[in-house]
Specification:
Elements (H helix, E strand, L loop, with lengths): L7 E2 L3 E5 L6 E5 L8 E4 L3 E4 L8 H5 L1 E5 L2 E4 L10 E2 L5 E4 L3 E4 L10 E2 L12 E2 L10 E2 L7 H6 L6 H33 L1
Parallel strand pairs: 8-11
Antiparallel strand pairs: 1-4, 2-3, 4-10, 5-7, 6-7, 9-10, 12-13
This protein binds S-adenosylmethionine and zinc ion (ZN).
The site of S-adenosylmethionine has 16 residues, from strand 3 and strand 8.
Amino acid sequence: MSSHATSYHSPKLQARQINGKGGRALVVREPVEVGELVVVWGGEAVHASRLGTLSPAERLLTIQVEEDLYLVSAEDGPADWVNHSCNPNCGLRGQIALVALRRLEPGEEVCFDYAMSDGSPYDQFTCGCGAAECRGQITGEDWSRPELWKRYRGYFSPYLQQRIAAKLAARRGLRSHRNGGREATRQGRRT
Ligand SMILES: C[S@@+](CC[C@H](N)C(=O)[O-])C[C@H]1O[C@@H](n2cnc3c(N)ncnc32)[C@H](O)[C@@H]1O
Ligand SMILES: [Zn+2]
């Protein structure tokens, strides 16, 4: 089989060398409308137990897609060069597709918040996104920040959306348990 990138990027985008963030980026060539598909990643699905066997270069081409599953590009390409930003212009649609969160203008770097995809510490680094709201350190726990749940609602990977739903349900349960406790006390006083 011939050697070709295993992922798709919109023809409205192009690869670019940059300073910092590993040196490569995907940038906008022609305007992209809100909701438009920009990237679809492909590759080999690798179980968490095999992550340790990947080379550092392969790890750079990896995105977490499920609790214990990671997608590794078989062939390095521009779609793999989407960097992280704490103020992203793109978000996930499902596990392996990226869409524009707003209209993208030529020259802009395509970026998403890795908190939308990552739920484990396989790709942690000091952030150089330069956004006012930059978190500084990017970790596998960032998805659990409640301020991001509302901001990225509908743009988290489905397995993370499930984790968030479980946390929200637990919070609601705790609240109603507390309320129930108050109710019981009030009733106790009445009788
Ligand atoms: C999928 S690669 C992105 C492509 C990468 N720029 C390259 O040249 O190979 C992910 C890696 O890029 C780097 N990176 C991405 N976003 C970054 C950011 N905001 N600040 C610093 N490094 C970043 C980190 O090393 C991260 O592990
Ligand atoms: Zn940042």
